[in-house]
Amino acid sequence: MELIALIKKLNFLLSNYKYLVGGFLFLFLQLFIYIANMNSESMVFYYWYCNHIPILFSLAFFFKQYQVVKGLIGVGLIPQVLWILDLMLYGLFSYQLFGFTQYFFELESSTQMISVLIIHVFSSLLAFLLTISVKPNYKSLITSLVYVLFLQLITLIFTDPSLNINCVQEICGLENFTPLLYKYYFFILTFIVMVLPSYFIQIGVFNIYKKYKKNKNII
Question: What is the pTM of this model?
């Protein structure tokens, strides 16, 4: 009975105070990332999507801009799922599917390992779960496109090409198959290959959730 009461309270909080729950969760996540990496000598670390997206999620939740949240999710959902899959395969079987996560097992600091794990597992996926009852629309697609273009520009202008931040210079895991001049139309390919599938996945999950809620109310 206590567990059921707790679940009802959590559901109430998420239904009525989603903007505060999401806002503070991602604000704390961004603070944790900063603390875990405060000894880093380079700010280039924060140009990576995963390392600055929590603060953007936080602001979007606080201002109740859920379509902005959905748009930011659309950029990182598939890459983070692939990262988790690559981590599991490498950790369990020492098999590299894409080679995304070998560096994770070479980190010397346990704090950094925890930070990297949390930001890749609990950023886009957590935002996805918190907004599962929100159907994405054209505004989320516009947000995704604008953000990807912004990400491409700041990465090309302010980061060392050899670091391949945000996979803008070469396709991460498929470096040998990177098309000619790829970095100049990165935002177009990312929109087609990552954003659009994520958009339709979010719509599909929303429809399943809506159907579940409807059947539950009938029962």
Answer: 0.90
